[in-house]
Design brief:
This protein is α+β, with helices and mostly antiparallel strands. The chain has 7 helices and 4 strands; from the N terminus they run βαββαβααααα.
């Protein structure tokens, strides 16, 4: 039985997650994380995406992607495929890095973008990997909060416009 097609249309907003095969690690060393961000930047440019937030955990990642053109499936195939090839080459492995198909939840921009951006960058805090989101270098939090320059792949305008530059930093720095 064929998988159902994803719903894609211009301006769609997705919360994308992808977990490691058998819940294994998808980022073993910092160069893995850096390469993933390079491939993500290429996908953002090539497939005309807006990346509002991202977070790399140890065995999965989260993206908040808005598709200007309906290109999510093609872009995700590129992102996960190129990353898997390099990961396997770098670590002398073969086979799957990711467990099955990525998960993409279609969400309403106006109602959920800010909450999803918070959810995405607070993952390492909820997992007790760090005390504050600003302490995790592998998410978009630091750039969105103005702690460091935003990489070209990240679009911060909408989140900042709806929350304020300083408000975002205070609102998602810690969980209660």
């Amino acid at each position: 039985m064929a998988r159902p097609l994803r719903i894609e249309y211009p301006g769609a907003l997705y919360h994308v997650t992808c977990r490691g095969n058998a819940r294994g690690k998808v980022f073993l060393v910092d160069p893995d994380r850096e390469f993933f961000l390079q491939v993500l930047a290429q996908a953002v440019e090539r497939f005309n995406w807006l990346c509002h937030a991202y977070c790399q955990m140890t065995n999965h990642y989260h993206l908040l992607i808005e598709t200007v053109d309906p290109t999510l499936a093609r872009g995700m195939r590129q992102l996960n495929g190129v990353y898997t090839q390099e990961f396997n080459r770098r670590h002398s492995r073969t086979g799957h890095v990711f467990q099955g198909r990525y998960k993409a939840i279609l969400v309403e921009k106006d109602a959920y973008l800010l909450e999803l951006a918070r959810y995405v960058v607070l993952n390492p805090v909820r997992a007790k990997m760090v005390r504050s989101a600003k302490d995790w270098p592998w998410s978009s939090y630091r750039a969105t909060a103005g702690i460091e320059a935003a990489p070209p792949l990240l679009t911060t305008d909408w989140v900042l416009e709806h929350n304020g530059a300083t408000g975002l930093g205070l609102a998602i720095a810690h969980t209660s």
